[in-house]
Design a protein that fits this description.
This protein has a five-stranded antiparallel sheet, with helices on one face. A three-stranded antiparallel sheet has the order 1-2-3. It has 134 residues and is mainly beta. It starts with 8 loop residues before the first strand and ends in a 7-residue tail after the last helix. It has two helices and eight strands. Helices cover 9% and strands 40% of the residues.
Length: 134
Amino acid sequence: MYKMCRNDVFTDYENRNAKKIVTEINGDGTFQAEDLGVWLRDTGIYDISLLREEGGYLKEEFYSFRQERVDDAYYYNEDASYVDFTCLVKAGDVIAVSDTERETVERVEIDGSFTTRTETTVNVNALLPAVDAP
């Protein structure tokens, strides 16, 4: 049996294979998790810069890892796992997903910095006119 800890990273196969990070452990053993990409933006550990954007459907960003911003919250303790930012992601990982966007890691640097590609998709059914069934 495995006990989840805060900062554990896993792939959510039921949510389009998005990488998630455990953010909170509940008393009954269940846990809360969020998309790794969302969590990374919120922590401020990475400087994120826009590399390229095309017509609102494609965006490439560079996540520059800043070791000096890592504090004790990302090291082992009684309820949290160590976060190794130098190998947190690999090329092909999906780090954020929604109904209209998917952010995928394209390239990873040796220091843990990486580049992502966010593609915006359109729900074709939402664009079709409603048709009443007979």
